Hints:
CATH superfamily: Leucine-rich Repeat Variant
Shape: globular
Low-confidence stretches: none
CATH class: Mainly Alpha
Distance between the termini: 28 Å
CATH architecture: Alpha Horseshoe
Order of helices and strands: HHHHHHHHH
Amino acid sequence: xxxxxxxxxxxxxxxxxxxxxxxxxxxxxxxxxxxxxxxxxxxxxxxxxxxxxxxxxxxxxxxxxxxxxxxxxxxxxxxxxxxxxxxxxxxxxxxxxxxxxxxxxxxxxxxxxxxxxxxxxxxxxxxxxxxxxxxxxxxxxxxxxxxxxxxxxxxxxxxxx
Length: 161
């Protein structure tokens, strides 16, 4: 018998900081995500529920969550968008990376998510930031570029998970 309170590994191979809501609808999770008066733990549960929904609509709802005042939540949004690997997230992730007023940790996670999505069209954007004054941004762009190259290589095609 397993204790449901023990963190479980997600379908993405990670242990989420808040367990995803297992009941509800996309509209409810989106509403919870946007409600700044709710506890962060509850909002995070909705983030992971939306990620697990795996639809374009859920991806776009997560993208709209970047309007949150919480840098922690925005960072987590970028992370889960990378996990989802949905190209619909790219315009929002690019916007977050390019925004000099965005928190550095959100920008770092946006860059890495762009690499994780695997769409090589973002290479010029990532390259622009490899010399950024914030090492978190520059190094994350380098990692993202390396990931894109690795995914395109034969190593990725023959790697067994």
